Amino acid sequence: MKKIRFLTSGESHGKALIGVLEGIPSGLKITKEDINHELKRRQLGYGRGGRMKIENDKAEIISGVRWGKTLGSPIAILIKNKDWENWKEGMSIESDQEGSIEPVTRPRPGHADLAGALKYNQKDLRNILERSSARETAVRVALGAVAKKFLFHFGIIIGSYVTQIGHIRLDIAKHKYAAFDYQKLFQLADESPVRCPDIETSQLMIKLIDETKQEGDTLGGVFEVIAIGVPAGLGSHIHWDRRIDALLSFAIMGIQAIKGVEIGEGFRMAEKKGSNVMDEIYFDEVEKLFYRKTNNAGGIEGGITNGMPIQIRAIMKPIPTLRKPLNSIDIITKQSFKATYERSDVCAVASASVIAEAVTALTLLDAFLDKFGGDHISETMKNYKSYINYLKEF
Length: 394
Ligand code: EPS
Fold this sequence. Notes:
alpha+beta; four-stranded antiparallel beta sheet; 10 helices; 17 strands; 31% helix; globular; binds ligand EPS
């Protein structure tokens, strides 16, 4: 059952973003630097637009932490929008500023603009696009940073890397690092402007982003999120909404522009025979643990973690705001027009991978606390250690 919950609030050009995270046990050491480190990683990707030069996201912890440690009470985090200075009238809370900027009446194909306007009866598309914007993900990353820090105490590390931008693919099989040397892959990804662990592939991706920018077009891609050190036994087969693969997919699909999620070999399993997909089971006499030599299941069987690394792959569609004109209809005049926009990101796959790490951390932490409980982190640790000992005696 759900142990942690969170809410986010905030518009893209509003005053600030706010997140509230409830259910984190007391006693976790957390600083604003832990959070700002993750916020920085989200902002770095090559191909982001002018807005990233304005924003330098910094978290302010408002509540739930005293003298550097969580209290067990809800943790509220605030991230100011620097761009608010330019939008004080246009995004004002007060009714006396109504009409201070022109309404947006031309929906961008691929955005929430038109579907949202129809649903919420809005004649100014800004009332939709301000919230559908991926700006909100900054605060999800901030909350995810708390979850990451908690899991880290239990040896769980979550990282990501980009495997494809447009038609440029990373050939992970040919990569010189061993298949499960994920920490090395995370480090290399952090050093790449496109978060791709291979330097040559990164350069090809950057070149493609530059060319696409010249054309006024945009790009999507594929990334992988990996969680290592997750013990066997999170999630459950007993009911559909407790399956950890279902919960992880839900969280990842909740990120703007994500159009597909796979676990382990995912869609590639379709063309293989069963004997090439199932991961055979072995026993390590020294560690006293079961293990697999392959990980086609992506660390999850029957909706339960099996102790192998969790591997999630997701595709992000190309960003829908283009400089290249696309056909659309003005919602007021019903006249057709060619949608064109000046300021836009070209590619945000690198950022999406960092956001996916955050929501993966929040989802895994929920399952972790469901299994191990604890109102203080030391209590969670005691329960966790006892379970690990049980696994060794099994
Ligand atoms: C976004 C459009 C751009 C992005 C923004 C998401 O903002 P603007 O319209 O102000 O140029 O930069 O992303 C962020 C602000 C962010 O922090 O990631 C959109 O339409 O989704």
